[in-house]
């Protein structure tokens, strides 16, 4: 039974308008037809229309909404203008109502003598709890240490507080059973079934470390950047690993983090799970700062640089394999059989942020080191420190070292200046520079890790199956777009969203609270 309520449609909508413009005064001057779709004030006005419709249906009374022409009858438009108007309207119809650029902060550094890894923060559970996880394009699964973990480090020398996920504390956590279709994915999960019917996993990494545990379904919370002035806090159902056993380097406090942030191509990777829900595009990018302060940018979206060069991904591979064709030192191509870089004779060439340095097979490592040594022979002498091939330079500085160029399929080249492949070990009277490329003796594989990926925008385009890069100062802002199926959304500048992100989130939060309050207020009369 409806209570008596005498309110005109104009009154209801105007009430919401006043509320909207009190929160968003800069939009009071906006009088475009797009306002109700694209602006925060428009969201409140739409809520008013929906509320009016709900009131009409609930009370069973007739309602009359006055409609006005967008184009006055005394104003004629030509065919070209009408087609342009329809085209803009179609663009709004096709625009995805959800999703945007997902932003993850980056900490850590590439220098193996300091940190030797990059990590980000992820929020899991209800209420959300924050975890520091290593950024790893070489694996497919996000996992974190759980309270039941055996062998997990309790402290970290990275000056971060380690956290442990407790499924019993999160109100939204549920265990993934063996019969759940999510228990199996395309690559690397090695899923199994535990005696208590839990979907379990076991991973071994290239450095000999490993982890095992079971899968949990819960919520991941993250920042979604909708426009340059609007960032909202989003959440999505997500399956991740709960580690209850760790071994090898994962146990050591020196570089201990809470887990691994898998960005591979498998169906359980971060990019795949969010993309299939329409919350992120199937493209992600990072820009890792190479100086001692480290940090950088990582987004689920495409960082736009006009000088980006691309090389195709090798199809049907579990990793981000590319076709490296040759290596040149000071412009001279080294006498290396190109087949040593391919999957035809080994594991090929992999781009992997989970690897600190870079690795070459024997057939490529020896001629590479010899070419560098020949180039700097008049400036110092070669020395060996642990497994590093180093040079003590007595005349000149790092600029005496040669430029290195890696050539890939599709005509893309990655040019490495001396600081892009060298690490300084010490400096006391003379400089000791060590080559970051290491020998891979037991496997024919080339791995390009953080050593060569730093100080570059790197784009992983899974839609077009390609990887691109461009030299860049990663301390600067970048332009990002969210692409889906070949279409691009508006480009968003990170400098703008950093300045306005928290303010936009707070406004969006209060906007939501206001809408809920007003709907509740009017509903009391029904």
From TrEMBL:
Active site residues per record: 136, 352
Origin: domain of life: Eukaryota
Keyword Protease: yes
Domain Peptidase A1 residue range list: 118-470
One GO location term (cellular component): membrane
InterPro entries listed in its UniProt record: Aspartic_peptidase_A1 (IPR001461), Pepsin-like_plant (IPR034161), PEPTIDASE_A1 (IPR033121), Peptidase_aspartic_dom_sf (IPR021109), TAXi_C (IPR032799), TAXi_N (IPR032861)
An example molecular function term from Gene Ontology annotations: aspartic-type endopeptidase activity
Keywords carried by this UniProt record: Aspartyl protease, Glycoprotein, Hydrolase, Protease
One GO biological process term: proteolysis
Family annotation (Pfam families): TAXi_C (PF14541), TAXi_N (PF14543)
Coiled coil: none
Family, similarity comment: Belongs to the peptidase A1 family.
Record-given protein name: Eukaryotic aspartyl protease family protein
Organism encoding this protein: Arabidopsis thaliana
Lineage: Eukaryota, Viridiplantae, Streptophyta, Embryophyta, Tracheophyta
């Amino acid at each position: 039974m409806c209570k008596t309520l005498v309110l005109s449609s104009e009154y209801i909508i105007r009430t919401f308008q006043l509320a909207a413009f009190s929160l968003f005064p800069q939009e009071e001057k906006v009088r475009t037809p797009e306002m109700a779709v694209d602006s925060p004030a428009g969201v409140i006005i739409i809520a008013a229309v929906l509320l009016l419709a709900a009131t009409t249906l609930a009370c069973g009374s007739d309602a009359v909404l006055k409609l006005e022409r967008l184009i006055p009858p005394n104003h004629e438009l030509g065919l070209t203008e009408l087609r342009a108007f329809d085209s803009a309207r179609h663009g709004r119809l096709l625009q995805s109502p959800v999703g945007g650029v997902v932003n993850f902060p980056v900490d850590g550094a590439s220098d193996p003598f300091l940190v030797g890894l990059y990590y980000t923060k992820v929020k899991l559970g209800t209420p959300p709890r924050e975890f520091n996880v290593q950024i790893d394009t070489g694996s497919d699964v996000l996992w974190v240490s759980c309270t039941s973990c055996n062998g997990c480090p309790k402290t970290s020398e990275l000056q971060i507080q380690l956290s442990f996920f407790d499924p019993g504390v999160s109100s939204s956590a549920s265990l993934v059973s063996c019969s759940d279709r999510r228990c199996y994915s395309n690559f690397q999960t090695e899923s199994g079934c535990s005696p208590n019917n839990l979907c379990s996993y076991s991973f071994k990494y290239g450095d000999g470390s490993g982890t095992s545990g079971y899968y949990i379904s819960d919520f991941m919370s993250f920042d979604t950047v909708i426009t340059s002035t609007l960032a909202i806090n989003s959440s999505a159902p997500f399956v991740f690993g709960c580690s209850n056993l760790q071994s090898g380097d994962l146990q050591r406090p020196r570089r201990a983090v809470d887990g691994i942030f898998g960005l591979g191509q498998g169906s359980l990777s971060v990019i795949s799970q969010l993309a299939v829900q329409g919350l992120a595009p199937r493209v992600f990018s990072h820009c890792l700062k190479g100086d001692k302060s480290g940090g950088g940018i990582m987004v689920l979206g495409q960082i736009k640089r006009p000088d980006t060069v691309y090389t195709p991904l090798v199809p049907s591979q579990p990793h981000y394999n590319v076709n490296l064709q040759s290596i040149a030192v000071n412009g001279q191509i080294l006498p290396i059989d190109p087949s040593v870089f391919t999957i035809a004779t080994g594991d090929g060439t992999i781009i992997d942020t989970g690897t600190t340095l870079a690795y070459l097979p024997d057939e490529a490592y020896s001629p590479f080191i010899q070419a560098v040594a020949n180039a700097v022979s008049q400036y110092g002498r070669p020395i060996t420190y642990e497994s590093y091939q180093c040079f003590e330079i007595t005349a000149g500085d790092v600029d005496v070292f040669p430029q290195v160029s890696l050539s890939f399929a599709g005509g893309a080249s990655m040019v490495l200046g001396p600081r892009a492949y060298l690490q300084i070990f010490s400096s006391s009277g003379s400089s000791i520079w060590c080559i970051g490329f290491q020998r891979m003796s037991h496997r024919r594989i080339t791995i390009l890790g953080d050593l060569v990926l730093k100080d570059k925008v790197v784009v992983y385009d899974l839609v077009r199956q390609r990887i691109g890069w461009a030299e860049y100062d990663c301390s600067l802002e970048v332009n990002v777009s969210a692409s889906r199926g070949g279409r691009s959304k508006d480009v968003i500048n990170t400098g703008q969203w950093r300045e306005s992100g928290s303010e936009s989130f707070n406004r969006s939060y209060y906007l939501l609270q206001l809408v809920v309050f007003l709907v509740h207020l009017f509903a009391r009369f029904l």
